[in-house]
Amino acid sequence: MEYCRGNKINIVEAGALEPIVSFLKSQNVNLQESATASLLTLSASSTNKPIISACGAIPLLVEVLRDGSPQAKADAVMALSNLSTHPTNLSTILETNPIPFIVDLLKTCKKSSKTAEKCCALIESLVDYDEGRTALTSEEGGVLAVVEVLESGTLQSREHAVGALLTMCQSDRCKYREPILREGVIPGLLELTVQGTPKSQSKARTLLQLLRESPYPRSEIQPDTLENIVCNIISQIDGDDQSGKAKKMLAEMVQVSMEQSLRHLQQRALVCTPSDLPIAGCASEVSSK
C-alpha cells in the first residue's frame, strides 16, 4: 500500500501530470478516458490533490463530466470527489458550476453504483455553500435524484444523500423544507431510521424533525416521538399516493422496530445461563430436599 502511494507521488514528481492534464482536452475518446482514469488514480494521494488542482485539472474534469463518454464521466466525478476532500479545492470546484452535470450523471447511473455514491458525496460537500444549494434546487430533478439515492443507494450513498438534504434544511428550513418534501422523501427517511448506518439513522431523525410543521416539541402531552413527528408531516403532504405510502412505511417501520427489540430480548435470553440465576437454583435445591 505504501509503495502504491509513493508511486502516485513519484509519477507527479517525474513531470507526468502536465501531459496527462492536457490529454483531457483531446478529441480522441480513448486518450481522454485514459487521462481521466489516470487522474482518478493520482487524485487518491493527499499529496497530489493541491498539485493536480494547481495544474488546472478541475475545470477540465468538469468539462469531461459534461461532454465525455459514460466511462470518462464516471471517472471524472470520482476524481473530483477525491480532489474535493482537500480544503482549497472545494471552492475551485464550486466555481465551475458542476452541479447540473453531476445531477445529469446521477439521474442516469445505477443508484446503487459507486458512481452514485461519489456524486452524492460531492453534492453533500457542495451544498455546504449557498451557491451549491441554489444550483441543486434550480436544476430540474436535482433534489429528486438525491432522494432516489436515499431510497435505493448503498449504505454509504444513502448516508451522503441524507447528509446533503439535512445540510440544506438546516441552512434555511423555510426555503428548502417544501422542495424536499415535494419529492416524496418521507418513506426513504423512515426506512433509513431503522436500516441505515448509525450516522444515517441520526441524520434521518433530525431531518424528519425539521420537516414537520414546527421543528419544536409541541407539548409534554404529545411527546416528540418519531411516530408523532411523521404523523405531523404526513398530515401536510399533498396527494393521497404520497400520504398513503408514508403511512404504510410508518407502520412497517414500527413493525421492524418491534421485531428488532424482540430479537434483542431473545438473544439476551439465550446468553443468560443457569449460573446467572442463583434464586432459581436455590429454589431447586430446596425442593429436592
From TrEMBL:
It comes from the Eukaryota. Signal peptide: none annotated. Transmembrane segments: none annotated. The keyword Repeat applies. Pfam families: ARM_PUB. The keyword Nucleotide-binding does not apply. Keywords: Repeat, Ubl conjugation pathway. Residues 15-214 form the U-box domain. ARM repeats lie at residues 15-57, 56-98. This is U-box domain-containing protein. The lineage of its organism: Eukaryota, Viridiplantae, Streptophyta, Embryophyta, Tracheophyta.
